[in-house]
Amino acid sequence: MDIGALLLRTGLTATIDEPSAEAAYEHFRALAGGMLEAEAFHDAVAACVRQGLIREPLRLDEQSLHCHWRLVLTAEGVARARTGIGR
After folding, report:
1. What's the CATH code of the domain at 29?
2. What predicted TM-score, i.e. pTM, was given to this entire model?
3. Domains in the chain, number
4. Is 55 among the domain residues?
5. What does each of the 87 residues of the chain score in pLDDT, given as a tens digit?
6. What 8-state DSSP symbol labels residue 42?
7. Is residue 87 assigned to a domain?
């Protein structure tokens, strides 16, 4: 399973906006059918950030007291997700 490609497709079809990376992983894992190791998820997220396919997922919004984890694709990430190329 190409988790990077799955992450990109998920970014097109679902919203993941969670209070922590752990909660984001659990949300993604549920969408992916439950069969996914945390390390593989975090590795795929890091690879997609390095490749400029998703934005840095940890955000501290103005006036916020806590960070949130959001899956947001870049323009390149959207293009790859639509063509099914993945990582």
Report:
1. 1.10.10.10
2. 0.86
3. 1
4. yes
5. 689 999 999 999 999 999 999 999 999 999 988 888 999 999 999 999 999 999 999 877 777 777 889 999 999 999 999 987 544
6. H
7. no
